[in-house]
Amino acid sequence: MEETLELYEVTYQDLQKLSLEKKPPLLDEEVRRLESISNEMMHHLGRGGSGLLSVSGVAEAGTLPKTLLPLARKLAILDRDDRKRVLKDHNLGSDVPLKNANRTVSSFAMQMKYGQGFDLKAGGVDEGEFKDLGSTFQELGFCMMELGLSIARVCDKFIGGRELQQSLLQCGSAKGRLIHYHSIADNAAAIKEASTQKQHSRSKDYKSAEVEQSDLWQQWHYDYGVFTVLTSPMFLLSMGVKSHECESPNGHTSLQVFHPELKRAMMVKAAKGNFIVQVGEAAEVFSKGKLHASLHSVQRPLKLGDNLSRETFVVFLQPSWNKTFSLQNYPLEQSEEHVSDHNEMNTIVHKVIPPLRSRLRDGMTFAEFARETTKLYYGGGGLQSNRVKERTKLDACLVTYGYFGCSKAL
User: What's the predicted TM-score (pTM) here?
Assistant: First the structure.
């Protein structure tokens, strides 16, 4: 049976109060209440917690997620030429190879600048179902960027100084990604179409690829920026090109996190309509280890049917590329203490995830760190390009410990 982790929830109203530079006069009772919330936030984002929390009551977001998220699947299954035109109309790109019909994820991205504001006329060329894609993407993205800045201010007050907030503002921008996690049926249809096209254009002997049925939509990893802000996911059941929203099939978000204190993987629960905030590795280093980066993946519930997909919108907040890391007073050895014992599962996690000490050096810029991290995860010799056996062993071990279902290709 899957073990779930109910995220600590803070209201957006309280988050705004906590992030104020100068607080208005408050009653002692209110001061104590806000201090208690701040301490709870830092516990859950810190070394004793999961590195995540949930934010409720973000009125500025309104119905934007419900409008934007279904467009992820519609874009993903759109004819290639039509999709290219829509993305161009709305100033969007992609950071995954969309030509791969067997991909488990489609991602549509835009770089957004702080203080720029969103363009209500973005993408005005398109008048169909995607006519508000660009403006909705930006409006929701800027709302989530402000949420992340508020989290940074609260953390800075606890840590001392303003490094987190300043690192985000000095960067001046954040990347938004609208993500569709493909259903098995999505992949099967795409592969069939691709094979038909290739049979006609190349050879009668062409053999189509089989659908990969890994039960992880996204592999285990750390985010290496400062904070990641996510919408709670939307799940869709599809029949061909049509789809409709459904409740989470397992009662959770399908996001799974490795809890460093409990030393096991847990499925994350967050209320529908809430936003999720994750700590990245840069924030852990800037805070001298007072914050804790979250090791996580996204589960694909194969047993619940071939037609289930997952939609979400994510904003990655990072420092500027030339921001340098200082490892002075940062307990680098503690960043990997969850894999330092002899627990078999922890040992295999260590084989799949490149240790921070192998990717980070004192004085390294964020650009250098990002490049080294990407290389060690996904490069020719990267752990997640040539460690299939270890990833399979990890999942078998997680099953043995009773944490979640087996993955065929972790």
Answer: 0.87
